[in-house]
């Protein structure tokens, strides 16, 4: 991300492009506790300035603090917010990828229990590139996209590994209230660097020619076109 000229208060920007839609409509949004945030007026996304990104060691350490256990019914209920509408949209016995699965791929386990075949990938905990060399009927990204340092490239990769007609299922907390952004728990997570509005996903879908719908709060299902299949 290009650097701002002057002080944060001047909100002057020099040759800044959005990390999602590549628009030049990026402006300084807020400074909170010496951390700068940027807003794209074209797609509505908000970004933490790259100066404040964690290094890989510190980022991994933060993830290790999470206690996401396969036997935890509360965690399964949480993941069900994504798994249930996704399963309703899928044909039986599909092949899927859990992208950014974390140390224990609980969502993949749940989808296998629903009759689908799953692969999983995570750059910190399951960094085997072979699953990324295949194509899938669907890809899940649960609590993942907010960690993308280079989201445009990540969504391009996801488009490449989706089969025609394939579904991309995402769960992340949508950013909806600028007045509450400073105190928002999601912003305070040091590993979260991108914050998406509903409009952001509509723009991402338009860039790739996907359909897009929001079955419930903080869930988006996007589908790659296929003339032989109905859309989600």
Primary descriptors:
232 residues; Rossmann fold; six-stranded mixed β-sheet; four-stranded antiparallel β-sheet; 25% strand; globular; disordered N terminus
Can you identify the CATH class of one domain? Alpha Beta
Q: Largest sheet, if any?
A: 6 strands, mixed
Fraction of residues in H or I helices: 25-40%
Task: Give me the CATH architecture of one domain, please.
Answer: 3-Layer(aba) Sandwich
Number of helices: 6
Classify the fold: give the CATH topology of one domain. Answer: Rossmann fold
What low-confidence regions span 5 or more consecutive residues with pLDDT below 50? Answer: 1-15
Question: Helices and strands, in N-to-C order?
Answer: EEEEEHHEHEEHEHEHEE
- Measured by DSSP, the beta-strand proportion falls in 15-25%
Mean pLDDT metric? 91
Number of E-state strands: 12
* Secondary-structure-derived class: alpha/beta
State the end-to-end CA separation.
34 Å
Specify Rg, calculated over alpha carbons: 18 Å
What is the CATH superfamily of one domain?
Answer: Vaccinia Virus protein VP39
Question: What can you see in these coordinates?
Answer:
The chain is of the alpha/beta class. It has a domain at 54-172 and 197-223: Vaccinia Virus protein VP39 (Rossmann fold, 3-Layer(aba) Sandwich), CATH 3.40.50.150. The protein has helices at residues 56-64, 73-89, 106-113, 151-161, 185-188, 198-208; strands spanning 4-5, 12-13, 26-32, 35-40, 46-48, 95-99, 117-121, 136-142, 162-171, 194-195, 211-213, 219-223. The strands form three sheets. The chain has a six-stranded mixed β-sheet, with helices on both faces. A hairpin with a 2-residue loop joins strand 3 and strand 4 (35-40). The longest helix is centred in the middle third of the chain and has 17 residues, at 73-89.
